[in-house]
């Protein structure tokens, strides 16, 4: 089943900023929900896909080993990396498609940070939000935590071996909360990535692209 939700209540404060930076799609979902696969689908359709360079973050392995202990430096670094990747990309008439989302960054932060650390993260986040503004579209990939865990086990990354079902459930809940908050300012397209095989099924791939194209068109009319 495919379901989409488009919200058109955005207010554009700076047309130049929107034209140069806001023409992007962010893909949001839990671990192993299909974010990179979806970004590749968009890349093959002519979008400019940007992939999270997670191996360049020096703390990511430590984070998976102990998410509580290493949350602050990990979340700050990933968020700044995402900001830098988008900021440095040349302006283009094509939409960027990021296999990450700032909503996911905030979900991770609210899961793992408290008190002054969370306040510091939110201060950085707000500065990024001011400069980049909202994306043209967020693709929300919903996936059952049990299926995500199966996918994690199947791909066999040693660094992910300590990820638990409870962690995946908590992350998916945190993502859903961020999506709900964003609906009044950002168009959201929600896709069940467990039921829609956009990795290999050509019919599903075509339908996904149609959904994205339609969502972008509706969003642009509402600016």
UniProtKB/TrEMBL annotation:
InterPro entries: DCK/DGK (IPR002624), Deoxyribonucleoside_kinase (IPR050566), DNK_dom (IPR031314), P-loop_NTPase (IPR027417). Transmembrane segments: none annotated. ATP binds at residues 29-37, 151-155. The active site is at 99 (proton acceptor). Gene3D superfamilies: P-loop containing nucleotide triphosphate hydrolases. Pfam families: dNK (PF01712). GO terms for cellular component: cytoplasm. The keyword Transferase applies. The keyword Phosphoprotein does not apply. Keywords: ATP-binding, Kinase, Nucleotide-binding, Transferase. One of its GO terms (molecular function) is ATP binding. This is Deoxyadenosine/deoxycytidine kinase. It comes from Geoalkalibacter ferrihydriticus.
């Amino acid at each position: 089943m495919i379901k989409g939700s488009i919200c058109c209540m955005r207010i554009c404060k700076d047309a130049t900023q929107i034209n140069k930076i806001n023409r992007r799609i962010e893909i949001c979902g839990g671990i192993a929900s299909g974010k990179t696969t979806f970004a590749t689908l968009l890349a093959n359709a002519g979008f400019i896909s940007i992939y999270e360079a997670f191996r360049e973050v020096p703390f990511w392995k430590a984070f998976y080993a102990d998410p509580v202990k290493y949350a602050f430096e990990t979340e700050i670094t990933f968020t700044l990396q995402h900001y830098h990747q988008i900021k440095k990309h040349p302006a283009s008439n094509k939409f960027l498609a990021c296999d990450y989302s700032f909503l996911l960054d905030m979900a991770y932060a609210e899961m793992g940070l408290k008190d002054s650390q969370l306040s510091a993260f939110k201060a950085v986040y707000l500065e990024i939000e001011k400069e980049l503004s909202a994306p043209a579209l967020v693709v929300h990939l919903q996936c059952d935590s049990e299926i995500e865990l199966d996918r994690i086990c199947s791909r066999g990354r040693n660094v992910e071996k300590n990820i638990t079902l409870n962690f995946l459930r908590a992350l998916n809940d945190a993502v859903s909360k961020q999506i709900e908050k964003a609906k009044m300012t950002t168009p959201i397209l929600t896709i069940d990535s467990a039921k829609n095989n956009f990795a290999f099924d050509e019919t599903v791939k075509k339908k996904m692209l149609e959904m994205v194209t339609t969502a972008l068109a509706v969003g642009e009319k509402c600016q």
